[in-house]
């Protein structure tokens, strides 16, 4: 099976009845973009730019960032790049950006909340992304957004940059989206869907915050299963709101490469899966194994269960 999946890695992934689902790769290092393409990735669905910042001893300046983002864009050769703005705090401290001691770092200054405390840092990053993508399409994604107000604040910075930077020096076509990883965002997806260009569901954090289980907890993290029906309902709400506004929805958390979850996610209407580069051929192969009706049946069955164990029991025997 693996050999077959590898052989077909450059083919688009379509369900048995021809429904296309994009399969992209998650990336933490722009130098690995070429490898992701060689493994069949149709784009980068999540560039975790915080790893780029962590590799430096101080905030990387505009030119340093442009050079690194350009490395990924060059390797992608026109394929889409979804670059997530700096997502530190919580489990990912940045030594040169100390955050006051917090009792609950995962509920504290992280992601967009942290970067909005120093908007000039966010602005430099956004400028670097826009300029690195000169003449090319670009997708920028904001992490840990909890409601439309945070999105609007970031949108204002982006809009100002789009006016400031001459058109030929910046991305030709920009999509600005948000990660769905805080339950409030899924619950309020209709209000966000009207304003964003896309959503990408971060099931790692969405599961953590929905089930109130620390994703790294040694005793509890095994219970943090993204196939929990409560998480699936939030994904369903997100997709319905997005599609009602003609916006696309990806999944970039671990759940996107779970063989049991793939048909459920497709059944819920997910348009793109972003997984580790190594998983790309296997996820594509998994997508070719079922049709949309089966996917919808599996999603319906999963949503009707009361626990993640029940979801796995009912799906895995099939
Ligand atoms: C997620 O939360 O699912 C996600 C993709 O982001 P990260 O794992 O980097 O927090
Ligand atoms: Mg996350």
Automatic annotation (TrEMBL):
Location within or outside the cell: Cytoplasm
Top-level taxon of origin: Bacteria
Family: Belongs to the PEP-utilizing enzyme family.
Protein name according to UniProt: phosphoenolpyruvate--protein phosphotransferase
Organism this protein belongs to: Billgrantia gudaonensis
Residues of the full protein shown: 638 to 955 of 955
């Amino acid at each position: 099976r693996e050999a077959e999946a590898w052989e077909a890695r450059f083919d688009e992934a379509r369900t048995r009845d021809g429904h296309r689902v994009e399969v992209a790769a998650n990336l933490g290092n722009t130098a690995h973009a070429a490898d992701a393409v060689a493994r069949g990735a149709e784009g980068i669905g999540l560039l975790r730019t915080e790893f780029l910042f962590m590799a430096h001893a101080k905030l990387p300046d505009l030119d340093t960032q442009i050079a690194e983002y350009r490395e990924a864009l060059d390797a992608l050769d026109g394929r889409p790049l979804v670059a997530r703005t700096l997502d530190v705090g919580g489990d990912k401290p940045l030594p040169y950006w100390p955050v006051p001691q917090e009792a609950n770092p995962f509920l504290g200054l992280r992601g967009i909340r942290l970067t909005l405390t120093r908007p000039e840092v966010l602005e430099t990053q956004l400028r670097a992304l826009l300029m690195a993508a000169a003449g090319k399409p670009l997708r920028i994604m904001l992490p840990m957004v909890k409601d439309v107000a945070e999105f609007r604040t970031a949108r204002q910075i982006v809009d100002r940059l789009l006016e400031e930077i001459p058109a030929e020096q910046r991305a030709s076509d920009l999509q600005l989206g948000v990660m769905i990883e805080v339950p409030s965002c899924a619950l309020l997806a209709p209000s966000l869907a009207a304003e964003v260009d896309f959503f990408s569901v971060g099931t790692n954090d969405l599961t953590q915050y929905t089930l109130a289980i620390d994703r790294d907890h040694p005793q509890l993290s095994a219970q943090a299963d993204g196939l929990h029906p409560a998480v699936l309902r939030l994904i369903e709400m997100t997709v319905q709101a997005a599609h009602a506004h003609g916006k696309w929805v990806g999944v970039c958390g671990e759940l996107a490469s779970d063989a049991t979850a793939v048909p459920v996610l497709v059944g819920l209407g997910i348009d793109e899966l972003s997984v580790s580069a190594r998983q790309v051929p296997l996820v594509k192969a998994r997508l070719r194994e079922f049709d949309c009706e089966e996917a919808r049946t599996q999603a319906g069955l999963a949503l009707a269960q009361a626990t993640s164990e029940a979801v796995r029991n009912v799906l895995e025997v099939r």
